[in-house]
Amino acid sequence: MKRIYVWITIVMILGVGIIGASAYKSFYYDEKQEVTQAIDHYLKQQDYMTYVKNKEIRYDTSTGEFIAQVVFQDEPENEYEIYRSGSHRFKVTGFRDGEQITNKQEGRYISEY
């Protein structure tokens, strides 16, 4: 009788682990891959991919979305955030020293596409 409880406990723990791993994959990993591909497509479409010095995809907890933090070779002092603003629209905001850049003269990659 005691063996049955042990086996039931093991099966339940494995079931919870499998369900948790599946939920992580479908809600986090797959979404991150989709956003990464969409942002890469945007950068290629705008012909910016050759200028990318550093790109990092991260999860923004305040908005609940994935964003790309990008530094371009020709503007290493600026950091840009690229995120979806619709199904096929992207918004690029620029930052210098933690303050948002609004002037296109200072941040040429700022756009809403």
Summarize the structure in words.
Strands 1, 2, 3, 4, 5 and 6 form a six-stranded antiparallel β-sheet that branches. It is built from one helix and six strands; from the N terminus they run αββββββ. By secondary structure, the protein is α+β, with helices and mostly antiparallel strands. The chain has one helix at residues 2-45, and strands spanning 52-60, 65-72, 75-84, 90-96, 99-101, 111-112. The chain starts with a helix and ends with a strand. A hairpin with a 4-residue loop joins strand 1 (52-60) and strand 2. It is 39% helix and 35% strand. The model has no long low-confidence stretch (mean pLDDT 88).
Provide the number of structural domains.
1
Mean pLDDT over the residues: 88
Structural class: alpha+beta
Q: Oligomeric form of this entry?
A: single chain
Shape: elongated
- For the termini, the CA-CA separation is 65 Å
What pattern of helices and strands is seen along the backbone? HEEEEEE
Q: Give the biggest sheet.
A: 6 strands, antiparallel
Query: Residue ranges: pLDDT <50 for 5 or more in a row?
Result: none
What proportion of the residues form beta strands (DSSP E)? 25-35%
Q: Can you count the helices?
A: 1
DSSP summary, beta strand count? 6
